[in-house]
Each structure stands twice: as C-alpha cells, then as structure tokens.
Design a protein that fits this description.
Layout: E1 3-5, E2 11-15, E3 25-29, H1 32-47, H2 61-71, H3 79-93, H4 103-114, H5 130-149, H6 177-188, H7 195-205, H8 209-213, E4 220-221, E5 224-227, E6 236-239, H9 242-251, H10 263-272, H11 285-296, H12 301-308, H13 313-316, H14 335-361
Antiparallel strand pairs: 1-2, 2-3, 4-5, 5-6
Helix pairs in contact: 2-3, 2-5, 7-11
C-alpha cells in the first residue's frame, strides 16, 4: 500500500487507514504532494475513530424483544404479557435474525398462521383470526419503532409497509329492557352476593366488568363513581343514582375492595337466563347495553366518549346508528320518496280540482 505514479502521469494513493484487514481506499491526484496530504488526513481520522467498518447485525429477533423489554416494555401496564406474546411469535418464526425479518417474510408467516400451519403456545388454542394477526403486527411494528427511537435499531422498520388484514365490522349486541329485567332476575338467584351489584354498576355507568368488580370504597363519593387504573390509563368519574349509591354503601369498608371475584357467576347467570349473544360478546354486553340505551334515548356521542373512556371518537361512533336522528334524511331524500311525494301532490291537486268543479256546477 503506497503512493504510486500512474502511466497517465497522475498519482494514486492506495492505503488501508485502519491497518491490515480494514477498509481499502484509493484516490487519484495530479501531484504527489496532494497524495501525501490526503493520506495523512485519512490515517489521522482513522486514529481518532472517524471511520470504522460497519459491523454485521447478528442479533436474533428474540434478542431484539429482550432489548425492547429492558428499555421500554417493562414500563407498560401489560408489558410482561406483551413480551411473552412476542417470544411466542419468535418461536413460531424459528427465531430468525432480526435483519432477515422483512415485509415478505412476515406476510408469508402470517399466511401460514391463518392457514393453521403454525401453532401458538398453549394459551392460544383453536383457529387464529384476522384480528389476532393484526394485533401481532401492531406489537411487532411498535417494537421496531420504539427501538429505532432509542437508537437500538438503525434500518427502517421492516414491517412499515405491511397492511393489516381487513375485518368486517360486527354489530355489537346489547340487551333490551325485557332482557335486562330477565338478566337481573337471574342474577338475584345467584349464589354470589356480589354479582348482582357489580352488574348494576356496569349497567349504570358503562364500566368494564373488571373496573366495576375492582371498585374500592374510596372510589364512591357524592353520588359519583371514580374509575382509576383503567384500560386506557385515564381516570374518569360517572354520576350514579342515589339508590345505587345506598346499595354500594352497604358494601363499603373505608378504602378496601367492595366486591370479590364473581365473573364466573355472571357468566352462569347469563346462560341460565336464556339470553343468546354472539360469541365473544358476553364480557362486554353490559357496557354495550349502557352505551346503546344512552344513545337511543338521545345521549350525546361526545359525552358518551368521556363516560366510556374511549381514546378516540371513532371507537364511540360504532353506536351512532342507534341515535334517533341518525341518517333520518335517508327516509326522505331518496328517489322513491320523491316519487311518493310527487304522487301525493298530484292527488291533492286532482282532489282540489274536483271540489272546484262540484262547487261551480251547484245551482
């Protein structure tokens, strides 16, 4: 490695600034002096650490998940559960190198997952739905984004271009007044002393079952219930009736829990009542019932958003179709309605004309 004069008369520098095994660089100049100066600059920069050959990223996807959990995941409310889910995905993928996870790689993995060719851990039995796959895509994509923000992942997010699967929006089931009466009657016959009151709290406030079941005495004050440690992490307060407050005070013990675990008793009472619900909606049927009746009776969607603790109004809009005025114009501003209105108008004109003729011919 040296400075040599070329046949063209110019001078070329051919060096390895980092030493043997380092990157080889070449540069051509008109004079030897320029070559010497450039060589000195390159070696000085190399001595200062100004250049280093890029190292290969040999981290596995599982190692990346570990890094994410240590730096960020442990701060999440359900971070450990998220980490275990990601570990399960790593195992199903064969724990590849992180750099080998591309959009194409993940799309093929998802296809096999939906086809039932890949089994998850024991906790996730049965067929995998498109909704589950979308959750998994969200978890992985969020992990790469967070590591990128922390400076632990320098390439672009490999899953940024992968689209979630389209899911048909299913109608949310809710109970009518007669069904509510039937359910409450079934709950009264339950062996659990708490299940009826927990269900009443859900029906009166739109709370999730876990939020109502976990209520403590100091969360009920001045005919209001304050829900803390919610799914969204936000605290919200909902007014209640005096009758419900008095029932809750009978269970109150300062700041201790008001209820014991009773969800299984609720499921049994719901089954005994004979109320048929779509699969997977039993746990939220009371919350949906509150929201649906709130809108049906003219409640404001923005108010409902605050009561339910939704992070986005789009989540609340699934109840919009129940509003009395929702799409009311569709019944009047359509071609059939226009024809009917025109026909009624013509009939009215004909009737008036007949009356005028009869009046004019009378003696």
């Amino acid at each position: 490695m040296a400075i040599n004069k070329l046949e063209s008369g110019r001078w070329q520098v051919d060096i390895q600034p980092e030493g043997r095994g380092g990157k080889r660089v070449r540069r051509t100049f008109d004079t030897k002096v320029e070559c010497v100066r450039w060589e000195r600059v390159q070696r000085t920069d190399a001595d200062r650490g100004g250049w280093a050959p890029p190292q290969r990223d040999k981290r596995s996807l599982r190692a990346l998940v570990n890094t994410w959990y240590k730096l960020h995941g442990h701060t999440l409310k359900r971070g450990e559960e998220r980490r275990n889910w990601l570990f399960s995905l790593c195992d199903m993928m064969g724990d590849p190198l992180a750099k080998s996870v591309t959009a194409e790689f993940y799309a093929e993995f998802r296809q096999k997952r939906l086809a039932g060719g890949l089994k998850a851990n024991k906790r996730h039995r049965g067929s995998i739905t498109a909704k589950t796959c979308n959750h998994e895509l969200t978890y992985l994509r969020a992990m790469f984004n967070e590591l990128s923000r922390l400076g632990k992942w320098h390439p672009e997010n490999p899953l940024a271009g992968v689209r979630p699967l389209k899911i048909d929006q299913r109608e949310l089931a809710f109970l009518g007044e007669n069904q509510v009466k039937k359910l409450l009657a079934s709950l009264e016959q339950s062996n659990s002393g708490h299940v009826l009151l927990v269900a009443k709290v859900c029906l009166a406030t739109g709370a999730r079952w876990s939020e109502a079941q976990g209520l403590r005495g100091d969360q009920v004050r001045n005919r209001r219930i304050t829900f803390a440690r919610t799914k969204s992490g936000k605290t919200r307060t909902v007014p209640i009736s005096k009758a419900l407050e008095e029932e809750l005070y009978k269970k109150r013990s300062d700041s201790g829990p008001l209820f014991q675990y009773c969800y299984n008793a609720f499921r049994k009472a719901l089954k005994d009542s004979g109320i048929d619900l779509p699969k997977g909606q039993a746990s939220h049927v009371l919350r949906h019932t509150f929201a649906s009746h709130f809108v049906i009776h003219g409640g404001n969607l923005l108010t409902l958003k605050e009561i339910l603790g939704h992070a986005d109004i789009k989540m609340t809009m699934c109840y919009a179709h129940l509003a009395p005025e929702h799409l009311e114009e569709a019944a009047t501003n359509n071609p059939l309605a226009a024809l009917e209105a025109s026909s009624r108008c013509q009939q009215s004109v004909n009737a008036n004309e007949e009356n005028r003729v009869m009046v004019s011919t009378e003696p």
